[in-house]
Write a structure and sequence with these properties.
18% strand, binds iron/sulfur cluster, 310 residues, alpha/beta, 6-stranded mixed beta sheet, two-stranded parallel ribbon
């Protein structure tokens, strides 16, 4: 669960944040007066749903069923998934060092952590065409070097939390929702900013930013309750780093829209309705080629027939 830190932008530790007992609402699963919400425990074994579950269902409900309902053993894990997680961990190490006022880890130290995670997977790693562990090592070095050199790697404010988990009630018609938050920081005037880090093959368009906003709108809603007494979330940020020969680090900032949560709540309601109704149709397409269940899914499109990832 969320632990609150506070540091200046240049990293010196200042004080514990003055949150008004922010854990209370979480432990109760929302405000004590909140109406009860449904539990997915009988279906997924968990008392909450996460945004990654929502995304998984939206991509292919059948794959969701394999992973979260049947809890089937994956035949493999895609290299991009492991790489993305390892890159996030490296970025969190940098933010943590800034928070503690410690020297930042070097590109070599961070890339070595990524290399270790790529080799530690207990499930066979599925490499993309033309990819090797060595090429991924080199990619990690280039991306981390670009990240460390970018002004965007320094937040303009005081870090509040890094890589934390928050849960809460979003709407009484959907279960408790869990969010994994990359970074929250506070500007000098008091507003809070939620930052999410993404690795991506291509630069993000404005359209891509807009379609990704419901995830951060959800985080903003949960954090506003969790950090009541600290501040309000007023801006959302996606920090993207491209997987390229010359990686580009870019910050996409979006103000929190007053009615922005409507789309997010709609998506949660639609997905939860499908899950509780046991509706898990296969949605074959480009995700099949990296789907860890394509060896047993009758609808799987084999690589030769799959269309390219958009
Ligand atoms: S192989 Fe394709 S259709 Fe089947 S579960 Fe995976 S993504 Fe869905």
């Amino acid at each position: 669960m969320i632990s609150i830190h506070s540091s200046t932008a240049n990293g010196s530790l200042q004080h514990e944040a003055h949150a008004r007992n922010p854990r209370q609402a979480l432990q109760a699963g929302g405000s004590p007066s909140a109406p009860p919400c449904p539990s997915p425990e009988a279906i997924t074994g968990k008392s909450y749903i996460s945004w990654s579950q929502v995304s998984s269902y939206q991509l292919c409900p059948k794959a969701f069923e394999f992973k979260y309902v049947l809890r089937a053993e994956p035949a493999m894990v895609s290299s991009s998934l492991v790489f993305g997680t390892a890159f996030h961990d490296a970025v969190a190490r940098v933010s943590q060092a800034d928070l503690e006022g410690a020297p930042r880890p070097s590109t070599e130290e961070l890339a070595s952590g990524v290399a270790q995670q790529l080799r530690a997977s207990s499930v066979p790693l599925q490499l993309a065409k033309g990819e090797s562990l060595e090429s991924l090592d080199a990619l990690a070095s280039r991306m981390l070097s670009a990240y460390l050199a970018s002004p965007e790697s320094h937040v303009q404010g005081t870090s509040i939390c890094i890589e934390d988990v928050v849960r809460g009630v979003v709407h009484p018609s959907v279960p408790l929702v869990e969010a994994r938050v990359d970074h929250v920081y506070q500007r000098t005037e008091g507003s809070l900013i939620v930052r999410d880090v993404k690795t991506t093959r291509t630069k993000w368009s404005d359209e891509k930013v807009s379609e990704s906003c419901p995830q951060l709108q959800l985080y903003a809603m949960l954090l506003d309750r969790e950090l009541d007494g600290v501040g309000k979330v007023e801006s959302l940020e996606f920090l993207t780093v491209t997987k390229a020969a010359k990686p580009v680090v870019r910050l996409h900032q979006v103000p929190v829209a007053k009615d922005g949560s409507r789309n997010m709540v709609d998506q949660l309601q639609q997905v939860w309705h499908g899950i509780e109704s046991g509706v898990f149709p296969a949605r074959p397409g480009w995700p099949c080629k990296s789907c860890p269940f394509n060896d047993r899914c009758p609808a799987a499109i084999k690589p030769a027939g799959a269309s390219g990832e958009p």
